[in-house]
Amino acid sequence: MALLQIAEPDESVAPHQHRLAIGIDLGTTNSLVATVRSGMSVVLSDEKGHPLLPSVVRYSADGKADVGYAAEFWKSLDPKNTIVSVKRFMGRGHADIAHSETLPYDFVDAEGMVKIRTVAGIKSPVEISAEILNILRLRGETSLGGEIIGAVITVPAYFDDAQRQATKDAAQLAGLNVLRLLNEPTAAAIAYGLDNAAEGVYAIFDLGGGTFDISILRLAKGIFEVLATGGDSALGGDDFDHRVFCWIIEQAGLKPLTLNDTRLLQGHAREAKEYLSQHGEAPITVKLSSGEYVDLVLTTDIFTEITRTLVQKTLSATKKALRDAGLTVAEVRGVVMVGGSTRMPQIQRAVGELFKQEPLNNLDPDKVVALGAAMQANLLAGNRAAGDDWLLLDVIPLSLGLETMGGLVEKVIPRNSTIPVARAQEFTTFKDGQTAMSVHVVQGERDLVSVCRSLARFELRGIPPMVAGAARIRVTFQVDADGLLSVSAREQTTGHEARIEVKPSYGLTDNEIAEMLKDSFSHAREDASLRALRELQVEARRLLEAIHSALIGSAEILSLEERAHIDAAMLQLQNVVDSDDRPVIDAAMNALSDATNTFAARRMDQSVQQAFTGKNIDQITL
Amino acid sequence: MSFENFVSGSRFSADHFALLDLPRQQGLDSAELDRRFRHMQALVHPDRHVQAGDVQQRLAMQWATRVNEAYQVLKSPGQRALYLLTLLGFDPQVESNTAMPIAFLMQQMEFREEVMAARAASDEVFLDAAHATLQRDIIEAHQQLITLIDHQHDYKAAAELVRKLMFQEKLLHEINDALEAVTP
After folding, report:
1. Looking at CB atoms within 10 Å, which of A188, A304, A436, B68 has the fewest?
2. Strand order in the sheet with A400-404
């Protein structure tokens, strides 16, 4: 195999090496897929020209799933098997779901995450979301006409670790290689910032169908630095609909409704809300299956009144984010409005009053997140063009901590810490001779464990017996660039190392995902193991290319033996990369990675060293 | 540069000041600190090494984590002083050394009680005023730390001031929480 030439970090990639990548906005109400074509970010439409895919999945008895408009048709006709707003259930238990009594589903409370019983069997929110992602992946492949090397998928900035992990699992299930989970307001900031060459502090106010985010960013010289983020992962357009729905029931004095009538009225509530964005009042006329008639008029004044507390919640979160960023409204240069729900006039007005300036609405609030995600996907796929280059520095939205004695939380990483971040904390034993310690990882802002979200529990065993308080157990939290956490713990006084790595427990294990992939209807025609082999080969070639180009750039920092060692490992991998023996390719990749450990570390040092000595700082800073 | 230089000369294990190539002192130009932080992240962040293999990706994450840690500490005057004094061999021992002048402790306790009462009574005006007062005291302490550490080299006095400062910052945090609780 001929080696491809890959550019050094500060050189551009030749056009013919363009790697196909997509950005996906997996929304509560609608989802979109976008890509960068000839330097422009564009949303990809379906064969009928629709850019949006309604985030609706309907299961039928034969196990088939309809997605999008085809599923939406069944919303009121088959409510139990037609799942809308599944994003609200991601990484959530039954008890976490607001107004679950008005939802038509047959919930099954599973450990960690709620599931839904449908005619096609019990489905987890991860599987349902994967159906939506799968359609978007196919749309991307059809429209780009080639293999997609990866996707950036957006999540609300205020999503916690459980919700992020669930989203990543869904993507994997849909056969997508996740380049990055990207926060929705940050994606919007990229699209806005790059389009308008914006510099300074900006607020992104993102009110979607089911989630609300507020992010404060500083944009300077190609760096998008999130200073603070806040929000509510269960507050969105759906809640405004629900207020209207309750108002209708109250005004019309309706008796308990059938599932179909509930769906029907919810649909009318949403239409009335949308109508009010353009008009002073909205007529609501519905004939229910019971024969009852609803004939009401919803005015702007009533709508504003019944949704006042919801608007207030967004403003409180906004003020809190500003305080966390250490800024006042006067320092904010612009407020970018994102998400379909920002079309509501009372939202526009309230935001304008708070920031004492007109909000910015010059980008399509439905598309801006997907467009930004596509730009980041393009960058992470390695399609950087000279002069079109930026870096994102994002934060975690919620504090991470550990349970200590008495059900209290000891915060280890505070909210709004820039990621990636690692922090260690020392704990000790409570009893003489204690040899095990249970570690409970939680996320949230409160001091009591019971009101924070439980992420993981694990036991550290093999602590040498000592008197109480003598052991030193160091628990380390690491949050990666996707905002996902891993935790390790070890006892250090005796040099005895008991170490454990955990991934939070609500996520699916790799085996479960493999099982689901096998069962999945959408993948039935594909041989799962062939797919895995192809992915491994792509990965192996990528590794060879990367090391090859690194060797061209920095060969001088290797001794002759070291170089010979790496060359031998590269040759070994090249010899097996085209074979169909996965374990052999895997072993050769591991051997090559091991051989290049020291080289990579020195190379990183070299680049940092040169930055301060060789070149002028301004030349390198983005 | 030969490869031997890198074995010994890694910036990774340098102290926070050296990592960002800043003078080891309490008075720092915050704009310059921001600039160096961004500059370093532009070099080491994992997103800048997407083409590279897993080994380099992992290294990039470690470096980016290291740079974030240094920036986090240096950006806050209180944390910076705590760190600098420890480097200089005068660890203020904020966790273990609770010996404080009685007058200061009494004043802090009274202040805290007033904040709690204002929180219970949803007295936003009082909390706002308390916030402003405390903020002013804290900024004054930051100035004093520069004098004590950089000019007078009186590290013992600086360590005591840092201990006080940690108290005050904690209280400021509580006032913020109270403000959050009382404003709708």
Report:
1. A436
2. A408-413, A400-404, A437-443, A453-460
Q: For residue A458, what are the β-bridge partners?
A: A439
Residues from chain A that touch B40, judged by Cβ atoms under 8 A, are 608, 611
Q: In which region does residue A50 sit, left (phi positive, over 0), alpha (psi from -120 to 50) or beta (all else)? A: beta
CA atoms within 13 A on the CB side of A370: 25
Unique residue bearing structure tokens 């991934």: A503
Cα-to-chain-centroid distance, residue A396: 12
Closest chain B residue to A382, measured at CA = B51
A vs B, Cβ pairs < 8 A, gives: 141
CA nearest to B71 within chain A:
A418
CA B154 to chain CA centroid, Å, is 20
At residue B80 the predicted structure's pLDDT band, cuts being 50, 70 and 90, is: very high
The continuous run of DSSP H or E covering B103 comes out as helix B102-120
Report the amino acid identity of residue A458.
Answer: F
Residue of B nearest to A591 (CA): B55
Residues in chain A with CB shorter than 8 Å from the CB of B64 are 420, 481
Q: What is the pLDDT of residues A275-288, one digit of tens each?
A: 999 999 999 999 99
On the question of a cis peptide bond just before residue A420, with omega within 30 degrees of 0, the verdict is yes
CB atoms within 10 A of CB A159: 26
Q: CA-CA distance, A229 to A356, in Å (whole number)?
A: 20
pTM (2 decimals)? 0.85
Phi/psi for A388 (5° steps) reads: -120, 75
Q: Which of B36, B46, B183 sits opposite A481 (nearest CB)?
A: B46
Are residues B68 and A546, on separate chains, in Cβ contact within 8 Å?
no
CA distance A363 to A347: 17
